[in-house]
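Quick sanity check, RING-type E3 ubiquitin transferase:
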Amino acid sequence: MIIGLLGVVFVVHAGRVTSLASEAEGLAVRGVGATLDLADSDTETETDPSSRRCAVLGRAVSADVDGPDKAPLSEEDSAWWRVQVHPRTPRFARGFYVPQTETSRRPFDLVEGDRRIRVEPDPAMDHVHTVTRSHKERYPQAFIDRKTPLTDRVKARFPAMRKELSELVIRRVDLTEWRVPEGAETTVVGRLTHDPATHEPVIRARRAPDDDLLLSISIGSDTGADEIRRRARRALWVGWAFIVFGFGFLLLGLPTFLFDHEG
């Protein structure tokens, strides 16, 4: 049953990612200057730029006065990052643990010469062609003094994740980090709009909270639409496999359940 429900989640996610790929395909990649000119023309003609999809290329740099953020695993200066912590159950245990993810929400700028445009990340945004680091860290067992420095580092930074992990019986933790280094040439696909407070152009995932998400980040001058679509296909196949496996066993067991109760 749980596997079937997890399959539904995969299928829904695949649909969202497919929609993102469809919107990203065919977009002309513009520099920061050309994008700002586009935003200015929208303002002059009273066109609502919120409906405008755009792909913008520039150097990704921190917008924070305190400087760039440190990625959780590598501790390298990064304009954007995402980290996933996947605790693994002991071999004798049944079931599995769901991966936990934290994503940078700090705004960053795309810069071209002396011109810049702000990007506001979204926890659900997609990422392609980022710098990836993976590590498997085995948990200490009885009579073994084995340290877990990377897991400890992540837990210290995210209290909610620390609390969740402290309640689990864990054999190993798989950690993965995706990041965009500070200063890397980066393409962001999103919606071009204006900040209502400052009236400055900004790239966001949505015009309103209930809008479909449109935001992805990729190192280089490619929107990554093809790779996003491949991921969506994989998620769709996995989702349907889980649905058939999970709900299939439920349906196969239903006649036996009814027969036992009739008897």
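Posting the structure with no commentary besides this: The longest strand covers residues 77-88.
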